[in-house]
Each structure stands twice: as C-alpha cells, then as structure tokens.
Design brief:
Blueprint lengths: L15 E4 L2 E11 L3 E8 L4 E7 L8 H12 L9 E8 L5 E7 L6 H7 L7 H20 L2 E2 L8 E4 L4 E4 L6 E2 L16 H11 L11 H16 L4 H5 L1 H5 L1 H11 L6 H14 L10 H4 L15 H4 L4 E5 L4 H4 L2 H15 L5 E5 L10 E5 L2 H11 L3 E2 L2 E2 L1 E5 L1 H5 L9
Antiparallel strand pairs: 1-2, 2-3, 3-4, 4-6, 5-6, 7-10, 8-9, 11-13, 11-16, 12-13, 14-15
C-alpha cells in the first residue's frame, strides 16, 4: 500500500477506534493509499500508535489485510522492522466493519528527509546510518525467506525512541519462490527483472521465474543514490542512458556532486551503490555481504542538520550558558535547577547534563522520558531567550548520551 501524505477530506476521518476494549482517539491522518489509510492515534494513557485501516472489501476478500498481517506476524522481533501490536475489526457509526492493524508509531520518512535536503545531499553519517539499518532489516527479512518488494523512501521511517530506521508496508511482500503478486515495486525503484515481469504480466504472458530478494538491493541502491545526490532520480532511471550503462551514470552523479566529502568514504559508498545496481540480479550480492562493505567501517560524526532532522528523547540546547557560569559552583547549580524547572514544563525529564569541559562545554543535554516530550520541548524552546540569549535546540542521539560520548558535530 502506497501511503501518501496529503490533504484529504477530514470529515471522512474516523474520530476514534476501539481497540481491545480501549478507546484510541484519532489525532491525524498520516497517509492514504488505494487500499488503506493510516492514522496517528492516542489512548487515555497518553500512549501513541498508528492504525492502518483497510477499506471495506465489498467482494469479501480482505486480501490486503490478511496478506500484510500474515507477513508482519511472521517477521516480528527485529529492531529494523515496524512492530505490530495487534489486529482488530473496527465497527463505524454507518455499520461498516473494517479490518485494522495497530502498529508502532514512527517518525520522519526518508522521503521527507529527501525533501528537506534541498538538492544538496545528506551527510555521510546519515547515509551510513540509514544504509546499515535498512540492510540489517533486509538481511533479517531475507533470512526469513521474504522479499519486501516495495522498498522506497516512503517505506523507510525513523524510530525516535529506538533511534534507528525501520521498514514498513509489507503489502507486496512474498515468500521467495512463491510470488503471489505480479506487479511489484514502485516506479523509480523497480529492478529490471521486475520491470520485465510487469511488462509480461500486462501482455498476459507468464514470466519464466519469480523475482528474488535481489530486487530489494536494487531499490536500496537507488535510495542511497538519492540520499547522496539530494535529488529524486525517477526520470534518470527511466532514461536510455541509464538503461544502457547505469554504472556510468552513477559515476557521473558522484563526480558532479559539488558537496565536499572525504574522498575515500565517497569511493566506498559509490562502489557499494554500484554493487546493488547490476542489471543481472545474480551479481548484486546480498544484504549480508553489503554489510561488510568498507563503507561501514568508517566512523562519521553527524552534522548539526542531522540532529535537527532526526528526533530522539534527548534534547541539546546551544547558546545558553556562558563560560563564566561554569566555574562558579553556586551559579552552576542555580542554572541546573533553572533549566530543569523550565524543561519539565514540556515533559518528564529523566536527566540533565551541562558539561564544564569540552566536548560539549556549556551545552545543555536534557533526557526526556520519550521522544514525544522532547519534540514538544524543541518546538517550544527553539528561539526562546534564556538569560538574554536566543536558544538553539537540536535532538541528540540517546545512545551517545548514555555512553557519555558528546559529538563535536560538523557545523
């Protein structure tokens, strides 16, 4: 199901769902596709989730619901796969029953990150983080015998609380060797063998064999190329030049990108992407072999823009504390208490740190109980004044904060 955000008739949006005897209020429609809509919901306990509601099937099939449910139930337990909390039937006021999935609520998609890139490309830290997470998710999926078959930026979402990217939307997924869907993948991310299979199916002809997990590697290669270039490549991959020699086009994109990147990581990323874009699926390797690429052995620090784009439970406040405050113990303790009092207005604060020495000297790190609280705090604190200074707020990786590792972020 292609869930696409956009304006839809709000009158058609459900007001609530009753899930296992508990009322979940609908806060927003997150996306709508041909067969289902996705909503952000919250319960009386202030917990949040997503509901994927499948359209009532007048033919009595409910195929999409049963398909995605069965795949998700079979592949639960991996950190890079969206969590399925449960399934239920919703009975609306018109007497229509619909089948629903109650899912983990995720955050920003790679598609949204690409829009925010402004044609400049993302940092090596973000590309590496995303590539590793997707590959680990695919490696697990492929070990379980499944092909995702619709990998694209919109189907890769950031988990603010787990601090990783996760795969969603398994409506076209199938067991390798038992393909039950003829038309797979989305235009722009479709592997050559899937293009051929779709063309044969449209002509009423049967393909010799089904597609394999290699189609997912092809899609990932396009996604990473888009993240590096900062541009959508739909028209590029439709071009004859791409079909004749896509490796040469990849080389052109890398040589023409005017971003200043260290040369060696760029070569490793380019070679990793090219290894995923062989026209022969047998030459693409696997997700597991891709994970041992030299590209993943290079440590990167995030750009400050990365820490604004990817929510976490930890907030970092800049331009707040002067050096003179750090070395006066009484003033320092007063500032700690003032900052705690202010930050607790927006959510439950678990810890607060103001380092006295570099790295992180004078920065304020606030750990909230969840990412929802830190997002609200960032929204309300950014641009505020504290002791006459304008506050600059970003998120900060929870794992790094817990280890006491304070990045010297690239500005």
């Amino acid at each position: 199901m292609d869930v696409s955000p956009g304006s839809v008739d709000q009158a058609m949006k459900p007001v609530l769902f009753e899930v296992f005897g508990e009322i979940w209020n609908v806060q927003a429609r997150l996306g709508q596709g041909a067969s289902a809509s996705v909503y952000r919901v919250s319960s009386g306990r202030s917990s949040s989730a997503a509901v994927k509601e499948f359209q009532a099937d007048t033919q009595g099939g409910d195929y999409g619901f049963h398909k995605e449910r069965s795949v998700l139930e079979d592949i639960q337990g991996h950190k890079n796969i969206v969590t399925l909390y449960g399934v239920f039937t919703n009975h609306n006021a018109m007497g229509v029953s619909t089948r629903c999935l109650l899912l983990e609520l995720l955050d920003v998609s790679v598609s949204e990150l690409l829009v925010r890139a402004s044609n400049q490309g993302h940092s090596m830290w973000l590309i590496q983080h995303c590539a590793r997470d997707i590959l680990e998710g695919l490696a697990f999926l492929h070990r379980e015998g499944y092909v995702h078959a619709d990998l694209k930026p919109r189907n890769v979402l950031w988990s603010a609380d787990d601090e990783c990217f996760k795969l969603i939307d398994f409506g076209l997924s199938f067991k390798e060797g038992h393909q039950d869907v003829k038309y797979i993948q989305t235009d722009g991310y479709r592997a050559p063998e899937a293009e051929l299979q779709n063309s044969l199916a449209q002509a009423g002809l049967e393909a010799d064999s089904g597609c394999s997990s290699a189609v997912d590697l092809w899609s990932l290669g396009i996604i990473l190329l888009e993240m590096y270039s900062g541009t959508k490549l739909k028209e590029t991959v439709r071009s004859q030049e791409w079909k004749d020699n896509c490796a040469a086009v990849v080389d052109q994109i890398f040589s023409s990108n005017n971003m200043v990147y260290p040369a060696i990581p760029v070569y490793h990323l380019r070679d990793l992407i090219k290894s995923m874009l062989h026209s022969d699926p047998k030459l693409r390797g696997t997700a597991e072999t891709a994970l041992i690429s030299p590209f993943f052995s290079i440590p990167f620090a995030p750009h400050i823009e990365d820490l604004v784009l990817l929510p976490t439970p930890v907030l970092r406040l800049l331009n707040v504390i002067d050096d003179r405050h750090l070395h006066n113990e009484e003033e320092y303790e007063d500032i700690i208490e003032d900052m705690k009092e202010e930050c607790q207005k927006y959510g439950s604060v678990l810890s607060l740190l103001i380092p006295k020495e570099n790295p992180g000297k004078g920065q304020v790190f606030v750990e909230y109980a969840n990412a929802g609280d830190s997002k609200e705090a960032l929204r309300l604190l950014s641009g505020r004044t504290f002791d006459g200074k304008f506050v600059v707020a970003t998120f900060y990786p929870l794992s790094a904060y817990k280890r006491g590792y304070l990045y010297q972020t690239v500005q």
